[in-house]
Amino acid sequence: METELGYLKRINRDFAAISxxxxxxxxxxxxxxxxxxxxxxxxxxxxxxxxxDSGCVHFVLLDSCFRSDGESxxxxxxxxxxxxxxxxxxxxxxxxxxxxxxxxxxxxxxxLDVSNHHGVKNADAVRKALEDSGKVLAVFQGHSHKNDxxxxxxxxxxxxxxxxxxxxxxxxxxxxxxxxxEGTIEISGFRKQASYDWPSK
Length: 201
Known about the structure:
This protein is of the alpha/beta class. It is 24% helix and 23% strand. The strands form 2 sheets. Strands 1-2-3-4-6-5 form a 6-stranded mixed sheet, covered by helices on one side.
């Protein structure tokens, strides 16, 4: 545990030197050895799910690291195939989307566009909240470590490759995302990450 916290604090320190305005999307690997409180403390954050505005865009970070019984993931108390967005978080999401008038981008670790073992168990309820708002342009997600793209209910669900999958620089993937004021989204992928260019809705 102490070793894991040391790695986390080192990464956060180096990331902080690059950007003060940084955010972490909680995933199952984050809480394999640590509790959520330990992880959040290590990256100097108070909450595992929240929203913020930047420019003309509203951003939402979700936490689906909850078991089917509502218990938070932490220190090997979970199966990675059992991710859920609990009722309290789903209620918060609905109210958060009602409160904004801005186009919205959502970030999640586990996938919201599939019903297999990589998908959030109640993804259909989460998607309904996103679609009903009429404000969500795209969801960026991971978990399955591969490039994938689906359009459901007028929303782009973009699955990003794993940042590290194998040895050497050629095995990593990352991207830059540009959001235009009219709602266009341009994803410039590097190494193994695919690039995309989406017009406004």
